[in-house]
Write a structure and sequence with these properties.
Blueprint lengths: L1 H11 L2 H13 L3 H17 L7 H19 L8 H15 L12 H16 L1 H18 L2
């Protein structure tokens, strides 16, 4: 996955992704738009088919990111770095944006840049995602007591 993460790192440094980050910053101020973004990202991930090894694992982690953003916005989880939240929202926005570096309608290759960016985000912000997973598992356990 490191080569995917390296490709994702390159994507994260290009001008288009910087534009996406600025859009994400604006969206983060509007909870309704964040909700729409989460729903759209979830549906796109759910519908994505790929023969890439490990893609299901990437999808599961990205679903966790969606849950993290949702928990942040509903106020139940706030133990996340603001920069991590901004980049997470930007990655989700990039995934749902129909015009990215390689259009998604091109089979397999079109989703490759999305996968690379997801891999980069997961590797760069693994600690934040793991902290949330521990919190999430703890809240489920407490909720069932």
């Amino acid at each position: 996955m490191s080569s995917l993460a390296e490709k994702g790192l390159k994507i994260s440094k290009n001008a288009f992704f910087n534009f996406i980050i600025s859009r994400a910053s604006g969206i983060m101020k509007k909870p309704v738009k964040v909700g729409l973004l989460l729903t759209t990202a979830y549906e796109k991930l759910k519908d994505a088919n790929s023969n890439e090894s490990g893609f299901d694992q990437l999808k599961d982690i990205m679903y966790r990111l969606i849950r993290l953003v949702k928990a942040y916005y509903n106020g139940t989880y706030r133990e996340v770095n603001t920069k991590s939240m901004l980049l997470g929202v930007a990655v989700l926005l990039y995934i749902v944006t129909p015009l990215d570096l390689v259009p998604d309608f091109i089979p397999i290759i079109g989703f490759a840049d999305d996968i690379s960016l997801m891999a980069w985000f997961i590797s760069a912000f693994q600690e934040e995602l793991q902290k949330f997973q521990v919190w999430e598992e703890g809240s489920v356990a407490v909720g069932h007591s």
